[in-house]
Amino acid sequence: MTELLTVPEAMAALKVSRWTLYNLIRSGELTSVLVGARCRRIPATALDAYITRLCEEAA
């Protein structure tokens, strides 16, 4: 089972602001899921994939 991170946990992992994190979600660069009607969660695998893409683009 994939671990789901809260928005504050994902913000801390990436060291970005709430505004930046939600922009990444809105743009489709970072995948997220809704649990219920209002609980936004970011799969840990999505965070790993995003970081991997950043590293590949930088290389």
TrEMBL record:
Any Pfam family the entry gives: HTH_17
MF (Gene Ontology): DNA binding
Domain Helix-turn-helix, chain residue ranges per copy: 4-53
Origin superkingdom: Bacteria
Protein's name in the database: Transcriptional regulator, AlpA family
Protein species of origin: Nonomuraea pusilla
